[in-house]
Specification:
globular, five-stranded antiparallel β-sheet, six-stranded mixed β-sheet, 9 helices, alpha/beta
């Protein structure tokens, strides 16, 4: 079985303890995510093309859910809606009891920053920032003092065994190393939810397996994960699959 040791040539990164990864859990009977009849469409000529149709899902705290389907099925669009990156939709959406569908864009952005971490296929590291500076980005959005932020970055560098890479730039890292930094950045602010869009799409199979093993350990420690994937293997790391086709759940 692959291990994260090979990414940086050192010991396997130590994933933060559950108390470090995720704040106090919500009540057991409270869904993390509930959507009802989510529709999203684009105008085309005199009509419209739907990319999501009447999508209703429930995700409990601590689940590891995979969203699958052919290209164009609406997978990444659904992830963007759940992550509050996309506000142009209709329907009802509750996040930890918050009625997101009634919230302004500003209020949705605040929820996003407080509770959600993102991992993308393209890594989305900032090229002209070092590894340590990239890790600081999500902390800079919060009301956290500089000294505390520096301590959190140092702790994350240590836990993920990337202290030796802290002053390097993304272009100096391999694809697997960049994605590991992206995962570390996603969890540094202790999100309730990680959203991952094809997180291993640009990696070799062994590197992809290492990242999926890391997700598995984070999930076992309490972090809810929703991933978009075309890979049956990656979907097998989760405990449930949501299949989409032409914007519908099938």
């Amino acid at each position: 079985m692959a291990s994260l040791k090979s990414l940086f040539g050192g010991a396997r990164p130590e994933v933060p303890a559950a108390s470090d990864v995720q704040p106090d859990a919500p009540p057991a009977d409270l869904m993390l995510i509930s959507t009802r009849n989510i529709d999203k469409s684009y105008p085309v000529g005199n009509g419209q093309v739907f990319v999501l149709r009447r999508v209703s899902i429930d995700v409990k705290p601590g689940e590891f859910v995979s969203i699958m389907g052919p290209s164009g099925a609406g997978k990444s669009t659904l992830l963007s809606v759940v992550g509050m990156l996309d506000s142009a939709w209709t329907g009802e959406f509750w996040f930890l009891g918050h009625p997101v569908h009634t919230y302004s864009i500003k209020e949705r952005v605040a929820l996003n920053k407080q509770y959600i971490g993102f991992v993308f296929q393209q890594y989305h590291l900032i090229d002209d920032l070092t590894v340590a500076e990239n890790l600081d980005i999500p902390l800079s959005y919060r009301n956290i003092k500089k000294g505390e932020r520096e301590a959190m970055v140092a702790d994350t560098l240590d836990r993920f065994q990337i202290v030796g890479k802290k002053d390097l730039y993304p272009r100096q890292l391999s694809g697997g190393q960049q994605q590991l930094v992206a995962v570390a950045r996603a969890v540094i602010a202790s999100p309730r939810l990680i959203l991952a869009d094809e997180p291993t799409g640009n990696l070799h199979s062994s590197q992809g397996a290492e990242i999926m093993e890391l997700f598995t350990r984070l999930n076992q420690q309490g972090t809810t994960i929703i991933q978009v994937t075309h890979s049956e293997t990656n979907a097998g790391y989760g405990n449930r699959i949501i299949n989409l086709k032409d914007g519908w759940i099938v």
